[in-house]
Amino acid sequence: MELKAFLEHVKERRPLDTAEIYSFMDDMSDEARRITFELNGAYHTPDEIRGLLSSLFGKPVDPSFRVFPPFYTDFGKNITIGKNVFINACCHFQDHGGVTLGDDCLIGHNVVFATLNHGIDPGERSSMQPAPIVLGKNVWVGSNSTILQGVTIGDNAIIAAGSVVRTDVPANTIVGGIPAKFIRKI
């Protein structure tokens, strides 16, 4: 399987459940680990970090993009980052289904983006269902939050620290808790 075919497959939200797909995911995971080990294993200048992340993502990142390592991903090639984005330390991107961060997003420590889910039926447990996570512009995700597959977060929204977001978040709102619930409008 080639990257382009895989990205089309997950864009259509088709299950990840064949030997060919599993083999491709293993190969991509090896590449992602190689790059993240290099990123996380020593000091790098901001320009070097952006260079490593451009290699990891398979496309250039904007010069305004900032990350405080360590940074973790098990795929890397389905991450899209806007301008003036900041990602704090210890974030985990499970990006097979796609993670998009709009311009001016702030991501706190230890945030998890999980774009895959397993089948509920025990006979389908090894099958994975991909769905993208999309953050609009100027979204702030507080530390230790988890954003689950298929969630879209609207412009200017705030996710309170420690939240688990499993449904879409409207623009200009604050949500928090487990599961995350509406707190107030901004």
Describe the structure.
The protein has helices spanning 3-11, 19-40, 46-57; strands at 66-67, 71-73, 79-81, 86-87, 91-94, 99-101, 106-107, 112-114, 116-118, 128-130, 133-135, 140-141, 146-148, 152-153, 158-159, 164-165, 173-176, 181-185. With 186 residues, it is α/β, with parallel strands linked by helices. The strands form four sheets. The chain has a seven-stranded mixed beta sheet. A five-stranded parallel beta sheet has the order 2-5-8-13-16. Strand 17 and strand 18 form a beta hairpin. Helix 2 packs antiparallel against helix 3. The chain starts with a helix and ends with a strand.
List descriptors.
globular, five-stranded parallel β-sheet, 23% helix, 186 residues, 3 helices
- Helical/strand content category: alpha/beta
Strand element count: 18
Q: Give the termini separation.
A: 45 Å
Order of helices and strands, N to C?
Answer: HHHEEEEEEEEEEEEEEEEEE
Q: Mean pLDDT score, rounded? A: 97
The proportion of residues forming helix, as a percent range, comes to 10-25%
Q: So what's the overall shape?
A: globular
Determine Rg (CA atoms, Å): 16 Å
Assess the beta-strand content as a share of residues: 25-35%
Low-confidence stretches: none
Biggest sheet strand line-up: 1-4-7-12-15-17-18
* Count of DSSP H/I helices: 3
Biggest sheet features:
7 strands, mixed
Q: What oligomeric state best describes the polypeptide chains here?
A: single chain
